[in-house]
Amino acid sequence: MTVHHFGEGNSLLNQFISEIRDVEIQKDAMRFRRNIERIGEILSYELSKNLNYVDKTVRTPFGSKEMSLPLDKLVLCSVLRAGLPLHQGMLNYFDGAENAFISAYRHHRGDEDAFKVIVKYFAAPSLVGKTLVLTDPMLATGKTLENVLNALKDHGNPEQIHILSVIGSQTGIEHIKKVFPESTHSWIAAIDEKLNNRGYILPGIGDAGDLAFGVKL
What is the CATH number of the domain that holds 163? Predict the structure, then answer.
């Protein structure tokens, strides 16, 4: 797997990352969602450089121009509910893409640290011959993406797989390297080193779904 880590360099992306981490700015849910969306736009632009292109003639009012345009048929697949703002950021750029959504969540028994990932809702088009982009804003243990990959198998084999994340842990990245095809690309804004006992990223941002949409029961 090729990992594209954009937090290693200086760019405007760091401003958006700092704001989603900040406990005071996090209180504004609309700004939190918009920052995630903007991060999705930046990562989408970077990902677009890795797609396949074809030369096409574009007619203008005064003539024509040969241009290199994206060729890939994209399917954007997001994990509900935390992945929705990131998904929107991608759609702002890949507006012609097909879409898939999956409900995958952690289930802890009582106060136990151990958990399993449960998948309940899933809707997706055929993936045969297409480029699959999986979005998961918080790549913690990597188990959610592993379960999503397994759920997608009945929809055919994509030509290429990309993973788009806002913040990940080194542990999660190492895990998905083992379960995803070697040709997979991971596009990530920031990488944190640690997980706590319950598998949450440290320092991370907290619960992205709660911060975007409110605390769940």
Answer: 3.40.50.2020
- The string of DSSP codes covering 121-154 is EEE----TTSEEEEE-SEESSSHHHHHHHHHHGG
Nearest to 122 by CA among 158, 162, 150, 160: 150
For the stretch 14-69, pLDDT in tens is: 999 999 999 999 999 999 999 999 999 999 999 999 999 999 999 999 999 999 99
Q: How far apart are CA 8 and CA 204, in angstroms?
A: 16
What is the total count of domains within the chain? 1
Q: Which residue has the tokens 């399917």?
A: 75
Structural domain range at position 37: 2-213
* Cα 91 to Cα 17, 134, 187, distances in angstroms: 20, 13, 16
Low-confidence ranges of the chain (pLDDT < 70): 104-119, 217
CA distance 116 to 25: 31
CB burial string 102-133: b at 16+ within 10 A, e below: bebbeeeeeeeeeeebeeeebebeebeebbbb
pTM (predicted TM-score):
0.90
Question: Residues 162, 133: contact at Cβ < 8 Å?
Answer: yes
